[in-house]
Amino acid sequence: MVKIEIKNLKVWFPVRTSFLKSLYSKKHQYSHAVDGVSFKIKEEEIFCLAGESGCGKTTLAKAMIRLIKPTSGTVRYSGVDLLSIGKNEFRSYRRKLQIIYQDPYSSLNPKKNVFNTIAEPLKVHNFIKNFSEGKDIITQILEEVELTPAESFFGKYPHELSGGQRQRVSIASSLVLNPDFIVADEPVSMLDSSVRTEVLYMMLRLKKKRKLTYLFITHDLSLAWLISDRIAIMYLGKIVEMGPTDEVVSNPQHPYTKALISVIPRPTSGVKHKKIILKGNPPDSMNIPAGCRFHPRCFEAKDICKRAEPSIVKFNKNHYVACHLLSQKRKP
Amino acid sequence: MNIINIRDLKVFYRTHKGKLRAIDGVKFSLNKGESVGMVGESGCGKTTLALSILKLLPPRGYIEDGNIFYKGEDLVQKSEREMRKIRGNEISIVFQGAMNSLNPVKTIGEQISEGLLLHTNMSKVEAFDKAKESLISVGISPDKLIEYPHEFSGGMKQRVMIASALVCDPQLLIADEPVTALDVMVQAQILELLNRLKQEKKLSLLLITHDLSVVAETCDKIVVVYGGKILEYANIEDSLLHPYSKELFRSFPNINGPRILSKGILGTPPNLINPSRGCRFEPRCNQSLKICVKEEPRLIEVCDQHFVACHRLKTSGA
Question: Which of A194, A220, A261 lies at the smallest CB-CB distance from B251?
Fold first, then answer.
């Protein structure tokens, strides 16, 4: 069953211009952070969004759970259109849709101890009247995220915890409301390699136990490959390739995906593989290149790529690609 | 020829609980033009080692014992004044989190040429020209010289850091986690740059990272550090033998290998204030022997230029 479905979602941020400039040019400039994205996430699936920084992964995820107001498009969660319902009505959905942030060093309030950090969402959503009631729930959730003995962590402040422990606390505070859809925004990118696997393990275990659906955001494709069921590669606000993780990684079709996969560092030395290193940085989301937005950096670009923007088409079962070269190859 | 030769180095930190033995008898050398990658978990003493080579330890840290020979001269004995001539000029460092180590109120050009003005008799104009060259060599257009750090992206700031570390043509570059927190594509760009500079300038490189795959792609040799000790020292082509190195290796996703999430290394890094008598890794090791609790293994050469500190290897070898 489909858990969450988004259709043609756009998030444009208006760019501030000076008063004088706004007088003689009527046109508003926008930064096209997310520029028409559609996909579905099935229940209990791990769907991964991957791409370079600044491609709109986080903006898209935030728009999906209404932390940012999208410019247009629809988001349906279990059949309900989240963007058309009112603020008060949305509150009951808010606790079902939670987010785990990237940096546990800055996402936790340094002045709040672990107990209060986790109790806050409970209080906001009227699960508990006062903090003493929350003790059992909080003990249980801390045990679930492997912070034991739970009582010893109640009074600790973020600065007393290690990076891995902090991330566990922030996972606990998102899970305490029993959500079923979790946006995990680079949850392990700030963690050490050995702690990283422990936290990932725990997240996978929690997923099984609580029947969670994950939207996993990462720039690390090897990580995405390891844990996700399906993957979507984003470039400058659009999805360029989407499909089952195994297939996308073993048989990438879009040049951008090919490049991303070729640069994944491999721990085995000796065997040298060819790397496709893209030059420069992704262009600015205010001036998106005409035609295919990837063409200035593409190593296979043809004439058509400069003129027309490719639409995303089915490559084979469940595997979608937005590239002109693919449709050209197929025609003859 | 050895460019750097570290002998039985011990670096301690004074804490209110007692001495923290951050580096406890480290011995290794680096040849000219060679690149060595140092890997280990956080808190194992990697950064401390880098800082002690340049004698930039924080006030609580001090070199208890040992020597650091740079071209035959002992850096431990050098005064602050003498060290200043070496830092940035002969040995350079690119710090972790380069995004935050640039000065926000100075232009990129001023920051890159700063080292030149300190170490050479160049005029400001000459220094600026040299800075321009250096910036080009890391692949940034020279008209960015008059821009400020906030106008740069993370990857570009990292390049600027490398440019300013290399502007005085040092012999040795220490790069402390140069690609952590960077994007994969930018990461590949930076590693390619380091590889190129290494060849062009015959630079010796000490790369510090917790990411084994980064070392595998750039270095000739690998040093595995754990709890302030070297557990293994090998050529990059050799397969690693120490149980810790193996576990570390396994905990990295390998896209050519099987698609399973490894369990990681269970347990926590050792207490460095009161270390155990035996092998530092023993409590977390799944292959420990009785002797591992009692006696600390020494670093022994198992085959050509491959050193391992593990009791198990000694017994199996004999």
Answer: A194
> B264, A194: Cβ pair inside 8 Å?
yes
Residue A177 CA to residue A173 CA, distance in Å, equals 8
Residue in A111, A56, A105, A63 with CA at minimum distance from that of residue A83 = A63
Of the candidates B155, B184, B262, the beta carbon closest to that of A264 is on B184
Nearest to B237 among A193, A266, A270 (CB): A270
Report chain A residues whose CB lies below 8 A from the CB of B187: 263, 265
SS3 content of chain B, % helix, strand, coil (to 5): 35, 25, 40
Q: How far apart are CA A194 and CA A318, in angstroms?
A: 34
Distance from CA of B244 to the nearest CA of A (A): 11
Place of tokens 């050529």: B235
Indicate the pTM of the whole model: 0.85
A263 part of contact set with chain B, CB < 8 Å: yes
3-state secondary structure of B201: helix
Q: Which residue of B has its CA nearest to A55?
A: B183
Element (H, E) at A313: strand A313-316
Chain A residues 210-249 within an 8 A CB cutoff of chain B:
219-223, 225-227, 246, 249
Confidence check: pLDDT of A272 > 80: no
B-chain CB neighbours of A246 within 8 Å are 259
Nearest-angstrom CA–CA distance, B246 and B249: 5
Is the four-CA dihedral A246, A249, A252, A256 of positive or negative sign?
positive
Query: What pLDDT is stored for residue A238 in this prediction?
Result: 93
Tell me whether B271 touches chain A (CB under 8 Å).
no
Question: Which residues, 6+ apart, have CB-to-CB distance to A86 below 8 Å?
Answer: none
**A214-219 mean pLDDT:** 92
The strand pairing partners of A234, in sequence order, are A239
CB contact (8 A) between residue A278 and residue B264: no
The B91-94 sheet, strands edge to edge: B91-94, B172-176, B204-209, B35-39, B221-226, B229-235, B306-308, B300-303
Residues 120-159, chain A: which have Cβ within 8 Å of B? none
Q: Which residue of A has its CA nearest to B220?
A: A269
Nearest to B181 by CA among A101, A278, A102, A55: A102
Q: What pLDDT digit, counting tens, does each position of B198-245 carry?
A: 888 889 999 998 888 888 888 999 999 998 999 999 998 888 889 999
Which residue from B192, B249, B260 is facing A267, i.e. has the nearest CB? Answer: B249
As a whole number of angstroms, the distance between CA A295 and CA A283 comes to 11
User: E strands of chain B, at which residues?
Assistant: 2-15, 18-31, 35-39, 61-70, 73-74, 91-94, 172-176, 204-209, 221-226, 229-235, 300-303, 306-308
> pLDDT (tens digit, 9 = 90+) per residue, B283-316?
888 888 888 888 888 888 888 889 999 888 765 5
Contacts of B280 by beta carbon, 8 Å cutoff, 6+ apart: B226, B227, B228, B229, B231, B270, B296
3-state secondary structure of B238: coil
Q: Is B151 on the interface with A (CB under 8 A)?
A: no
